[in-house]
């Protein structure tokens, strides 16, 4: 039968209209039906910021989406919001037109449903073409949504930058698309601009073509297979600084994997507005070092041949768009005249975090946002790794403790899904799983696709089996079983520990740590956790042992402590597991005595956690202030910044209460001087060249 009808010319604005009955049934779960899978987009965007002086600016666009039909259907359902749909056409793989009987926008679900007269056939490939237009407005909030305009002032002149923020379901606000992370495809993009402006996209510029009038069309290289939320479009007149990575070791890997995408000497650029470009040097150095580190660690080159980092005026946070990472100016720029030394740590962490996403999140992506911790937990875990030691001279594990562990312990927050859990996973088992090997396997197996939590557990468990890491009874280590309670429940445990030095046994019980008794829903695991624990005594608490001593598997335990001796023991050496520990009176007394005698017999991270524990216990009425002041007495010899950082708010808290009592206040001040004076004498007001950065 001959096919007729070339295309449907429609003008659909933001009206709520219904999908056809068949379409409605398919989409009622809120997700796209899953019967059509996009493979490639040709997208052209023309943002006109030149004919008017103020937003809104008109955006004209066209998109051509090639998709495969998996199940017979009479509807093409995809996402679209805020666009005026002007022209729609559909062709099959022979280029023959498919009749369109209706086009409907469902504003509530942000669906664009295109109904066809015939049925689309399984196994067939189709190409949908849509012309559309919309407006670009001033950023809505610090993170923006879709394509945004942001003004700034230069030479007393109001200027605009156009930039997109498509996380996590905002691509549909720029162009019609299958806007769920599982729908990965390649993209060929053309951005139009006027002379004097620069357009940036995820991939490098291939060529520029002269269009009508003064318009120039920038054609960019085809992207890797990727999710829509990771696309990024920028039009600006910012200058940049640049360097190249030099991972010579990766040359052979680049050649054997994807020569078209990869370059062993990837170009790294940092863009900022003209008046701040001199503050981009630190970011450039950190970005090159971190990218080289990740490429060597994963043995996988970043498939975009370049990575741009751009500081956007008025933007908040940072976004890991593949090959074009956007930041607030505060998070990318550092200048010795107006930035603190500490701010370098913030910048380095954020740059590393966003670069970690290029692999963990961009190359391998959560299938849906309920598993978003797979992206964020891993990127946060890695944010302290690549450059702390080499560039900042800081110990990554100490930064990890300060940035993540203390934040989770002290937050009235929801489910523990983050870097602390990844850290627990990485050090789990009798010996730790080689996390680099696991990472390579995970990334290689799921490259250019999407994952759910079980995929991570399976690869971790496989790696554990391969390395002979077993559960405590010698059975295979089932990481899903171990960590599901951490994923499914809010909060974290409080362990009560009691040490019997005569019988050499440790009694352990666990409960939800909920001193403020906030409401929590009932949970399948009854607020018990599988906790990997290590133990130490006076001779073995200064360094973190490999692996774990026991798993406290959602029940109370009596642990054989024959390898331990002395009047006290320590649990969770190096603060690797997310929990607080309350010791029996005698053991706690022994720990205080040890801290005062020689605090270095206890691992620095454990000291910081001990101090944080007792401060929180006192604040919640679980420990007397006298006990806390007694343990803090050793601080006169404590040189670790992370411990002092936890103590300072507590001192404020005590001061507020004691100021009202003049005699006691005087005594407290004398007590404080006894803690601070010895440290001040050693550290002094000014930093020393050879001093550890976290002193
Ligand atoms: Zn992130």
From TrEMBL:
Cofactor binding description: Binds 1 zinc ion per subunit.
Catalytic residues as annotated in Swiss-Prot or TrEMBL: 354 (proton acceptor)
Keyword flag Membrane: no
InterPro entries in UniProt: Aminopeptidase_N-like_N, Aminopeptidase_N-like_N_sf, ERAP1-like_C_dom, M1_APN-typ, Peptidase_M1, Peptidase_M1_aminopeptidases, Peptidase_M1_dom, Peptidase_M4/M1_CTD_sf
Pfam families: ERAP1_C, Peptidase_M1, Peptidase_M1_N
GO CC term, one of those recorded: cytoplasm
Annotated ERAP1-like C-terminal domain residues: 568-688
Domain annotation Peptidase M1 membrane alanine aminopeptidase: ranges: 282-424
GO MF, one annotated term: metalloaminopeptidase activity
Necessary cofactors: Zn(2+)
Binding annotation for Zn(2+): 353, 357, 376
Residues making up the signal peptide according to the UniProt record: 1-20
Domain Aminopeptidase N-like N-terminal: residue ranges: 37-230
Top-level taxon in the UniProt lineage: Eukaryota
Family: Belongs to the peptidase M1 family.
Name the record gives this protein: Aminopeptidase
Annotated organism of origin: Capitella teleta
High-level lineage: Eukaryota, Metazoa, Spiralia, Lophotrochozoa, Annelida
